[in-house]
Automatic annotation (TrEMBL):
Matches recorded under Gene3D superfamilies: Umud Fragment, subunit A
GO BP annotations, alphabetical order: signal peptide processing
Organism whose genome encodes this protein: Candidatus Manganitrophus noduliformans
Listed name of the protein: Peptidase
Positions of the Peptidase S26 domain: 12-155
InterPro entries associated with the record: LexA/Signal_pep-like_sf (IPR036286), Peptidase_S26 (IPR019533)
Pfam families the UniProt entry points to: Peptidase_S26 (PF10502)
Gene Ontology molecular-function annotations: serine-type endopeptidase activity
């Protein structure tokens, strides 16, 4: 009886360890108001073809404004993708004629923000990512995200 109990305990602990290693690699939680969903299932081996307009993408942005941040991995939605037309007029952003939002002049910390300016077709293998909140730090300030910098495609769960 003790051997059966010990075997069950070993199986349970092995399953728990496997789940502990698997779960953090498959899910992410966003705590900022940048996106409306909070929990996402991650596909960490996406092909470039899977990244389309409205896909949620996890990437590591390259910006001096993020120096010293606890984490730099960022989750945003691909609002405009290669072949789409992005127009920026006086800080207002449009993709294929659809209004996306407006850039701010200053960050929440009071730092002057440089807006990304662009007129024309999104280049090959580039994404214009966008958050749904007015204070989202996204392509309005970062510029294009390269598809090769996408770590995962995120599928909203909750």
């Amino acid at each position: 009886m003790r051997k059966v109990w010990s075997l069950k305990l070993i199986i349970f602990m092995t399953a728990l360890l496997a789940a502990g290693a698997w779960i953090p690699q498959r899910f992410t939680v966003t705590i900022t108001p940048s996106l409306r969903h909070r929990i996402y299932l991650l596909d960490r081996s996406p092909s470039k073809a899977q990244i389309v307009r409205h896909s949620y993408v996890l990437f590591e942005p390259h910006s001096k404004l993020l120096q010293g941040a606890k984490t730099t991995r960022t989750l945003k939605q691909a609002a405009c993708v290669e072949g789409d037309v992005l127009i920026v007029k006086e800080g207002l952003y449009y993709c294929n004629g659809t209004y996306l939002g407006q850039a701010k002049d200053y960050s929440l910390k009071g730092e002057k923000l440089e807006r990304f300016e662009f007129q024309g077709e999104i280049p090959k293998d580039r994404l214009f990512v966008f958050g749904e909140h007015v204070d989202s730090f996204d392509s309005r300030y970062l510029g294009f995200v390269r598809k090769e910098d996408v770590i995962a495609i995120a599928h909203p769960i909750f």
